[in-house]
Specification:
It is a single chain. The chain contains 7 helices and 8 strands, in the order H-E-E-E-H-E-E-H-H-E-E-H-H-E-H. It folds into 2 domains: 24-150, D-amino Acid Aminotransferase, Chain A, domain 1, CATH 3.30.470; 154-206, no CATH class. The chain is α+β, with helices and mostly antiparallel strands. Strands 1, 2, 3, 4, 5, 6, 7 and 8 form an 8-stranded mixed beta sheet that branches. It has helices spanning 2-9, 68-81, 113-118, 123-131, 152-165, 170-178, 193-217, and strands spanning 27-34, 40-52, 58-64, 85-94, 99-106, 139-140, 148-150, 183-185. Helices cover 39% and strands 25% of the residues. It is globular.
Length: 218
């Protein structure tokens, strides 16, 4: 509170945010497209099981998982806000009062939207069709919950972190981090062989730059 008072005395604008306790698996997201009449034409929900950096970062491993409560909360939020277009919602379950807490409303497609597409709810395509007035049925409650999504290298780091801390068993490490079945990769595709070379090279370049930076400061 001392620093909060100091900021107030200095006349600086600031925001106080609460950390919601509980594991990353308590985080659920929604992907939606809302048309000009505020009708939701696409709705997808998923569990964000891991992030990078661990605890406070971007999703690195997610699983398609329909959740009625997240779907209802997301729909209510965009309608009350009068929001139109593509957006993502994020909620975390708070075990202290057993309620979902809103983390953010993101007014754009994000990297994990490829999970929605792989699971059968292509939110961006639905928006495209609606804007061009092409016939296109709503996609709600029709997702394939067997699909998983991974930002490979970052999730390897995050998964190993939780394995070492004892928060992830060997079985879950192999199932979520290693097993490629029913998995959509964020920046890798067999249909785009260039990514199979470019992604590892880019990762190695970033790692070397990081190491050189550490050495330069020591």
């Amino acid at each position: 509170m001392h620093w909060w008072q100091k900021l107030h005395e200095w006349g600086t604008d600031s925001v106080l945010q609460e950390v919601i306790v509980g594991p990353e698996a308590n985080i659920f997201v929604g992907a939606l497209y809302v048309d000009a009449d505020l009708d939701v034409r696409s709705l997808f929900t998923a569990r964000k099981s891991r992030q990078y950096p661990p605890w406070f970062g971007s999703g690195s491993y997610m699983e398609a998982c329909w959740n009625d409560e997240i779907a209802a909360l997301s729909t209510e939020l965009v309608k009350k806000a009068g929001y139109r277009g593509v957006c993502g919602t994020e909620y975390k379950w708070d075990p202290r009062d057993e309620k979902w807490k809103l983390i953010e409303l993101n007014p754009r497609p994000t990297l994990w939207y490829s999970l929605a597409r792989a699971a059968g709810v292509d939110v961006v395509w639905d928006a495209y069709c609606d804007l061009l007035e092409r016939p296109n049925a709503p996609h709600i409650h029709c997702q394939n919950d067997e699909i998983r999504w991974q930002l490979l290298v970052r999730d390897l780091v995050s998964g190993w972190h939780f394995k070492r801390s004892g928060d992830l068993s060997w079985r879950e490490f192999l199932r979520t981090v290693v097993d490629p079945r029913h998995k959509d990769y964020a920046v890798l595709s067999l249909r785009d062989p260039g990514t199979l070379v470019g992604y590892p090279v880019n990762t190695l370049w970033k790692y070397l730059a990081y190491v050189r930076g550490d050495r330069g400061e020591s």
